[in-house]
Structures are given as structure tokens and as C-alpha cells.
Amino acid sequence: SRSVNNFLMTGPKAYLIYSSSVAAGAQSGIEECKYQFAWDRWNCPERALQLSSHGGLRSANRETAFVHAISSAGVMYTLTRNCSLGDFDNCGCDDSRNGQLGGQGWLWGGCSDNVGFGEAISKQFVDALETGQDARAAMNLHNNEAGRKAVKGTMKRTCKCHGVSGSCTTQTCWLQLPEFREVGAHLKEKYHAALKVDLLQGAGNSAAGRGAIADTFRSISTRELVHLEDSPDYCLENKTLGLLGTEGRECLRRGRSLGRWERRSCRRLCGDCGLAVEERRAETVSSCNCKFHWCCAVRCEQCRRRVTKYFCSRAERPRGGAAHKPARKP
Ligand SMILES: *[C@@H]1O[C@H](CO)[C@@H](O)[C@H](O)[C@H]1NC(C)=O
Ligand SMILES: *[C@@H]1O[C@H](CO)[C@@H](O)[C@H](O)[C@H]1NC(C)=O
């Protein structure tokens, strides 16, 4: 996809050895974005994934913030994992603290994932895409950093016991990357709590303006996501912005394992956008009740299962999803 190629084309040539890892990392960031936003009105459309500053409209809303954070996190994560797997000659475990006291009853030891390495290379690649000096550029760099902080902040301490027959009188511990899903979930929470700063007006491209921008961003923790603009409600299609709207989107209603966010997806995607919920029934056929017959055949029955799916539709229906007033919040 285009954003992946951006990394490859604009990354410094000296870092060519890392480019497949960077591309894989950017890709995993995109996939995680799609997973985290599968049941949101904005669902991480391809068009939104343009990270580089050249060309196109640059939005600076909450979703832009998430895209930057998850992308730089994905790149840092993959580089770090590659390093631990021995994919690069110049990098290995982080054992810089081994032998030192880490806390009560434990010492640093073993092979910690080398996030310092992933962080440094990711910074070189991803931050290099940002060539501007304005508030948007500062916002993007801040959110790139927030993504890298999220990788570091979700690392897990893993320990091994030592002592007579595993009595655990002392332990050695090392830091491991979590599943990337956990980084995604962490950043989704940060997305909901993102801070809006008011910098688009006023602060021009003067030295004083740039100073004001730098001061503002310095005062905000790099663990938090930051945006400058409010988001559209994402209900309606807007081709200029590359937005598809929610008409035709699937939503979820009933299901054993649905969380609260998923269960409310029909209301959020359809009802709150003035659309009806359309029920579509389908039947699936699959093999079931298979029995083994002596000798040697397996015979199965064909089982039919009814599945009901829900979609946002413009057509007014007498039953199901009464049309609500369009809401303004995404
Ligand atoms: C790093 O890992 C990714 C998958 O996790 C893989 O696609 C890529 O080729 C690896 N890079 C190197 C240099 O081995
Ligand atoms: C799409 O968004 C742009 C930028 O916010 C706006 O100017 C335009 O009116 C919108 N178009 C439609 C069809 O809503």
C-alpha cells in the first residue's frame, strides 16, 4: 500500500537493510488500526493512511493522531522483534543492565527485547517523513513518539526463579514485548483520551510562532495523543476527504462474545447516522456429525445453519432500527 512505499522511498539510504522490517511493521500497524476500529464509524480506510506530508489534504484530527501512533509503534515493534530473532547482524538482546539489582528480590538477567534499537531506527524512518515545521508537523511527531512510548510502556517483565529446588530466593528478570494487539488496545484508549490543542490559528510560520508550537508540545506528556482539529462525524460519504460514510456497513447485534462497544455498533453506525438497520438472513451449509465407518470411510451430514447479519441501510423499514436524529459525535 502507498504508506508502506512512502517509508521505503523516503527513508535514508543507509537504512536499506531495515527496509523490509520497516515495511512489515508499517503493515502490521495498518492491520491493527483496522482491527481496533472495525466497529467504529471511521474504520481506518486506506485513504487515511497517508503518513507523508507531501501531497493531499492533511487532516489533523484524533484519527490522524492514532494512525501516526500505531504506525510508528508497528515499525518499532517489528524492528525490535527482528532484532531479538537475530535477523540483524548489528543488534541483539539488551543485556546492558544484566547483573544489576532491578527491585526487591530480583536482578536483571536474560535477554531483554532491545526496544532501544527499535526505537532509534523507527524514529529515523518514520519521523523523517515529516518535513514541515508547522503545528501539524509538531502534532505528527508528537504522536509518532506516543506510539513508541506505548510499545515501551506495555512491555512485560518476565522472571525466572533461582535457589534450592526452585525456592525462588532470587529471581532474574528481563523485559519482553507484549502481543502487538496489546499495544493497539493501549493506543485505542489513548485515542479516546486524546488532547486537543488550539494552534491552527495564530501561530504562523514566524520564529515566535514556531516557538509557541514547541512550547505547547513540550508541555504535553509524550504518552498522550494530541490533535488540532475536531473530527467530522463520519456518517456521510465525502469523496474529497476519502470517507465512505456508514451506509452499507455491517454492524453486530447479538452474539455470545460481544463486548459493549460491539453490541452498540448498530446504533452507532446506523441509528445515530439516520440510517435503518437491515437484517439479512443467509444459510450456510457445512459438514457435520461425521462418523467413522469400519473400514475405512468417514460419512458426514450436511448441516444448515441460519445466520443473520445486520447492515446500515437508507431504506426505511417498518421494523428494526428506528431512525434517530444524526448525532454529531463520532
Ligand atoms: C522482520 O520480520 C518480518 C515479519 O515479522 C519479516 O517480514 C521481515 O522479513 C523481517 N526482516 C528481516 C530483515 O529479517
Ligand atoms: C467534504 O469535506 C470538505 C472539507 O471538510 C467540505 O468542504 C465539503 O463540503 C465536504 N463535502 C461534502 C459532500 O460533504
UniProtKB/TrEMBL annotation:
The GO annotation for biological process reads:
canonical Wnt signaling pathway; cell fate commitment; neuron differentiation
**Signal peptide span:** none
Pfam families from the UniProt entry: wnt
Where in the cell is the protein located? Secreted, Extracellular space, Extracellular matrix
Q: Which InterPro entries match?
A: Wnt, Wnt8, Wnt_C, Wnt_CS
Q: Name one GO cellular component term.
A: extracellular space
GO terms of molecular function: cytokine activity; frizzled binding
Keywords associated with the record: Developmental protein, Disulfide bond, Extracellular matrix, Glycoprotein, Lipoprotein, Secreted, Wnt signaling pathway
Write out the similarity annotation.
Belongs to the Wnt family.
Described by its record, this protein's role is as follows: Ligand for members of the frizzled family of seven transmembrane receptors.
Name of this chain's protein: Protein Wnt
